[in-house]
Amino acid sequence: MRNPPPQPIRLKDYAPPDFLIDSVELFFSLHKSKTRVRSRLALRRNPKGRSGAPLVLDGDDLTLERVSLDGRPLDREAYETGPENFKLAQPPEGPFILEIETLVDPTANTQLSGLYRSGANYCTQCEAQGFRRITYFLDRPDALAVYTTRIEADKSEAPLLLSNGDLVEAGALEAGRHFAVWRDPYPKPCYLFALVGGDLGSISRDFTTKSGRKVKLSIFVEHGKEARADYAMDALERAMRWDEERFGREYDLDVFNIVAVSDFNMGAMENKGLNIFNDKYVLASPQTATDADYAAVEAVIAHEYFHNWTGNRITCRDWFQLCLKEGLTVYRDQEFSADMRSRAVKRINDVRTLRLTQFVEDAGPLAHPVRPDSYRAIDNFYTATVYEKGAEIVRMLNTLIGAEAFARGMEIYFTRFDGTAATVEDFLSCFAESAKRDLSQFARWYSQAGTPVVEVATRHDPQTRVFSLTLSQSTPPTPGQEQKLPLEIPIALALFDAAGNKLALETNDAKADEIAQGRIVLSSETRTLRFPNLAAAPSVSLLRGFSAPARLEPPVGEADLLRLLAHDDDPFNRWQASQSLALRSIFARVRGEERTDDAFADGLGRLISQSNDPAFTALALTFPSEADLAREQGEDVDPDALHAARKALRETLGHALKTSLAKILERLTEQGAYSPDAASAGRRALHNVALDLLAAGDGALGTQLAEAHFNAARNMTDRLAALGTLALVGGDARENAFARFYEEFAEDSLVIDKWFSLQATIPEEATTRRVLDLLAHKDFSLSNPNRARALLGAFAAGNPTRFHARDGSGYALFVDAVISIDPKNPQLAARLLTSLRSWRTLEPDRRRLAEEALRRVAAVPTLSGDTNDIATRALA
Ligand code: 0A1
Ligand code: ZN
Questions:
Q1: Interatomic CA distance for residues 732 and 370, integer angstroms
Q2: Atom 12 (ligand 1): residue with closest C-alpha?
Q3: How many angstroms is it from 101 CA to the middle of ligand 2?
């Protein structure tokens, strides 16, 4: 692993490349430990580069075998080289051909970046900087070239040979070898290069684009698992059709290939025409995948496909512009899922993720702008801020300028920047043009880190009957950004009277029309709205649909929340009311107040009986997690106190709602064949949430029902949910169920990952021992990212009382594991370590222990650049 440069790389230092690569011919001779890579580059000086500059190519961990220039072998003195670069001090002034031969060892590549082996297959991962681990190259996203790739391999070892673009030739060679030649006509940066060699099964389907192009879609998976790719194929077809209809985007090659591998650092990768996936986001069957897994497969398949336009046809000028492709593509996949499923439920789930990941990131030492202005290790910037907050910015843009101007702006973007490496400014310029509007203040969302706080103050004057609503914004300081400027915050709002009627929003404001429609923009520090003719103070529903990634303060009062829970016609804020009521009660309990929560229970009871959307009801009955509570508290966090208070609320509500919950169970008993559609999934979700809450109120009954549910379950959703409930109630029932589950699925690694995760999250003292035992389990491995995350990631993120154990035992086992993973897979180690980023929000004793744990990592002398970057920033 290369160490990060001592000096960070800065956006303001961007300079175009000194050379252009017109075409790349690659020749791979695949071999387990000595793969030979010959690269033939057609180079010329970039008129926009520095005149007379040397040619410097990037490399990482390469063995250089041979170099030739315009067909003549180069002497060793003619160039400079090290493992990290290749330099020609005086390249020809005119165009020239450079041929470089390197040797790489895919088996020794445990970083899973570059060319590596997953099981018996060869595969690549080049984003962000993996291509330089294959050959010396201009490894930067603004160096676009056309690629032709010839792959040779033993036919018995790798009957399947894939790369980007379309297949142009294939055939047999001597000695049991064979070859395939692929050509990708679309210029691309090297991070989109991909190669796969191996022996895999597949499913295929024909797709005709709206203009009549015939495309062969194929998904390659482990032999025997072909049927588990059917849902992914179905999602792919729907995504392709949707992108044609919603964004006018068509696919542009004759084939589209997806390969699932079981060793992968991230979710998936959008390589041109050859997406490579973590198999977790391809494989799904009713027996092995939950409803949430099905939804994730659909979303990730769509996400990678949508990158074909937002990322590939239009790529990023430099890695600072990562949100240009990621934020926009997440927005697109969110919209797709919203159209395929319930829009309200999708929005609620997306906001839950945003708060759980991005808000926490934004409030801690790793906070950075959606477009960072400096980095030391780019792999550490594939963050919730770049992805999820990046998507929120695109969503706000749509809200601010309206769907029509947004659609026209997208059209301009696709037309004007096709085939280029673009910037955030390029993107925004399209919308400034389509909306005829200045977007310079809006652009601050990209450059300013931190979650803005909108402070709400209300006043009702019974004499004048005027209700005034004052909104003030501020953004807390973040690392390197002390001062913040006002943002343009779109705020959707409504008012409800005591009977729950929605009031007309009449004002004498200069922007009365905008207000009447329930949408305002807070662009100055403070804005006051005055509503005349109101006999009493109404309840205010703000940030409806979560119209901006902001926090509202202070918390809304209980009476208003109960009213909104009953009457708000914005499902997001109706759900928010349930969450806010739960938060109020839990924090009151933390302060030692006695609570009965009768009114809250009544409100939920009414919601249960009136709602005809089971998925929504399930979300309203899912209370903020312990991690949510820690984030809301923000300082002096004692995870034990939060756990106890949350448990007490669930007991109270489970008890109070017993009859309603039992009715749900009766009403929603699964019948018929499993179908992953949103409506069926919603019914299962409600059934399982009801069972879990019922068990919180009555452990004995809960155990009995959960055991029965576990035994009767015919799909993984019900199976795992029942196991989760049993995991909380404990006892023999739990241990028996875990044992049976293991026996049944021992051969199925994605299911065994769930088995590891669920055990790691049991909130009991004995779990620390259990996790230590699981680390030594014969099925455990620190080398497989999914497995490592299943145990350690789940422990750190999903078991606050044990991870933050008072005696430091949770940190100890976690940090030991991170330190062991780091030399093998720095990206994985670095990402896991981010779980400690909120250490400063803990109460003093744990804060000290967590800091020591981080310091122990930082002190490892051989620490990788990636992990060092996280440890250093977290401690700064
Ligand atoms: N671009 C991919 C995610 C991805 C990012 C980095 C990787 O390696 C460091 C791998 C994949 C996506 O957004 O899906
Ligand atoms: Zn992406």
A1: 48
A2: 269
A3: 31
Give tens-digit pLDDT for 784-841.
Answer: 999 999 999 999 999 999 999 999 999 999 999 999 999 999 999 999 999 999 999 9
* Nearest residue (CA) to ligand 1, atom 2: 269
The reply to whether 760 and 653 lie within a common domain is no
Same domain, 431 and 373: yes
Q: Is residue 417 part of a domain?
A: yes
Q: Is the ipTM of this complex over 0.95?
A: yes
Mean pLDDT throughout 696-713?
Answer: 97
Whether the CB of 350 sits within 6 Å of ligand 1: no
Residues 510 and 639 in one domain: no
pLDDT tens-digit map of 61-74: 999 999 999 999 99
For residue 607, what is the domain's CATH number? 1.25.50.10
Are residues 354 and 439 located together in one domain of the fold? yes
Q: Give this prediction's pTM.
A: 0.99
Q: How far is the CA of 351 from the centre of ligand 2 (A)?
A: 18
Rounded to an integer, what distance in angstroms lies between the CA atom of residue 249 and that of residue 309?
7
Contact 467, 379 (CB under 8 A): no
- CB of 379 closer than 6 angstroms to any ligand 1 atom: yes
- Number of domains present in the structure of the chain: 5
Are 539 and 567 part of one and the same domain?
Answer: no
pLDDT of residue 1 exceeding 80, the answer is: no
Is residue 541 domain-shared with residue 561, that is, in the same domain?
no
- Give 80-147 as a 3 state SS string: EEECCEEEECCCCCCCEEEEEEEEECCCCCCCCCEEEEECCEEEEECCCCCHHHCCCECCCCCCCEEE
Show contacts of 471-477: CB within 8 Å, 24+ apart: 471/522, 471/526, 471/527, 471/528, 471/529, 471/542, 472/525, 472/526, 472/527, 473/522, 473/525, 473/526, 473/550, 474/525, 475/448, 475/450, 475/451, 476/363, 476/450, 476/451, 477/450
50 in any annotated domain: yes
Q: Does residue 334 contact residue 237 with C-beta atoms inside 8 Å?
A: no
Reply yes or no on whether the pLDDT at 638 is more than 60: yes
Q: Is residue 810 part of a domain?
A: yes
Model pLDDT for residues 475-503, shown as the tens digit of each residue: 999 999 999 999 999 999 999 999 999 99
The domain of 41 spans 9-199
pLDDT at 571 over 90: yes
Q: Taking 80 as the threshold, does the pLDDT of residue 433 lie above it?
A: yes
**Using one digit for the tens of pLDDT, what is the confidence trace for 748-797?**
999 999 999 999 999 999 999 999 999 999 999 999 999 999 999 999 99
- Could you list the active site residues? 304
